[in-house]
Amino acid sequence: MTRLLGRLLALALIATGVVWATPAQATPARAAPSAAAITRAMQPGWNLGNTFDATGADETSWGNPRVTRELLANIRGQGFKSIRIPVTWGRHQGPAPDWTIDPAYLARVQEVVGWALDQGFYVMINIHHDSWQWINTMPTDHDTVLARYNAIWTQVATAFRDTSPRLVLESVNEPQFAGSSGDAENYALLAELNASFHRIVRGTGGGNTTRALILPTLHTNADQGRLDATVAEFAALNDPYLIATVHYYGYWPFSVNVAGGYRFDETAQQELLGTFQRLRDTFGARGIPVILGEYGLLGFDRHTGTIEQGEKLKFFELFGHQARVSGITTMLWDNGQHFDRTAGVWRDRELFAHISTSWHTRSGTAASDVLFVRRSAPVTARTITLNPNGTGFTHVRLGDTTLRRGPDYQVSGDQLTLSAGLLQRLTKPAGYGVKASLTLRFSRGVPWRLDIVTFDTPSLSAATGTTAGYAIPAVFNGDRLATMTATYADGSNAGPHGWTAYKEFDRAFAPDYTAGTIRLTPEFFAEVTEGAPVTLTFVFWSGETVAYRVTRTGDTVTGTPGTDAG
What we know:
Layout: H1 2-16, H2 23-26, H3 35-41, E1 45-47, H4 69-77, E2 82-85, H5 103-118, E3 122-126, H6 130-133, H7 142-159, E4 167-170, H8 183-203, E5 213-216, H9 224-237, E6 242-248, H10 252-256, H11 266-282, E7 290-295, H12 309-326, E8 329-332, E9 339-340, E10 345-346, H13 349-357, E11 365-366, E12 370-374, E13 382-387, E14 393-398, E15 401-402, E16 409-412, E17 415-418, H14 420-426, E18 433-442, E19 448-455, E20 459-460, E21 463-466, E22 470-475, E23 481-487, E24 509-512, E25 517-520, H15 522-525, E26 534-540, E27 545-553, E28 556-561
Parallel strand pairs: 1-2, 1-8, 2-3, 3-4, 4-5, 5-6, 6-7, 7-8, 12-19
Antiparallel strand pairs: 9-10, 11-13, 13-17, 14-15, 14-18, 16-17, 18-19, 20-22, 21-28, 22-25, 23-26, 24-25, 26-27, 27-28
């Protein structure tokens, strides 16, 4: 009963805007940069992901190398001004009631933070995967969770109390609660954690008196209810050194390539635009600075090729522009899939060029980065739509050669037409695949690469295999797979995500262009009815579709081309 009354009081205080002023708030120990100034100075930022947030024995347990001074210097050299160092503490804590953090682990975090500060970074540390490992049990184990949480922040805040003000602290990553009664309780629990974090850090004095503190929304989600609840917390705490944080991984069907979301289409664009509008209207309009502590695409966690290259580039171009005009600081999520921490290079330099350019200006794009030309048909002129994004289209280049307007291409408004003569020359070499890469040049930003690809309709062959490793023999003929649908004879959806016919790329199916196969995963067959033929329709980027039928009998899978095979 006492605990319930405490939560209700916390909610009432937030709702009425009552402020608990601490002595540190009333008389700051020293002047400090404003939260808004710190937030601006942190743009752009990068995440040292899958390192200290790993839940294994040490920072290498999720496959990344140990952090070195050289790595941090290299990241600084890429143009980043801040670094988020996610930290999972639970595995490195002793038992109740003290919950003592392993001194060696804390010292290692301090060492890396010190190196980053030496490089001139702003540095953010937090409580990370503890959020879903044990903090989420707060509805049913309130006192234990709160005591353990408080113990972490008491030790961490004390350890860093005299550290440079360029260190900022984030209360908890992606807060979530299991078994709660609903959002009202979730908001109350998060407000309690954030208020406790705030009280503990400020109470340790020293540099923590005015250190910038980062408070997340529930799930670090930007839905309106989450934002409104965080605004109420800010009003209750009444501290000028607070910064809000959310994460953004895009419109989910696009972000993982499921449910037909394989293009950065109008729906995906509007979802992104709506998110930034809510952040501006809810936080920006109230003078609350915002750090977008993680951003990217969720499909990257499995494979960076889950989303087609041109579609992902359009996403990051628009995202960067919206963040810049909204005055929101962004921190790229990188768990090792973007910057090669051993070789010291970007795995996808084209992607990083678009990301880094968006910090300063816009780049022109186009409806696609691939133009498919059928090998078995006469070559004709082809038109694609340009997206100038406020720039001006200037010219087309092939390598170091500037193509001729008129004989090689024409432009009318946002329509670029490549002549039949140009395409005939470019596609003359035998075989399938990329025959040339044009660059479409705009008045500023990154040039847009347009691959000219020769293709014919892909063909699939019959195969027998098992649910553990079934692969369809495929001759791709230069084409590229975009998505796949799966349906039963009655038209109902087959396989995982039964609410849609379109299955998830790389989770239910994946092309292997080198091996000449399309793999269907055990996860796909786990949700396929035994003995019921499933019609698969493979959708290719050229616009071609190819049908195939598979039937699971126990652990055995048989498949044949076409919809009439049985």
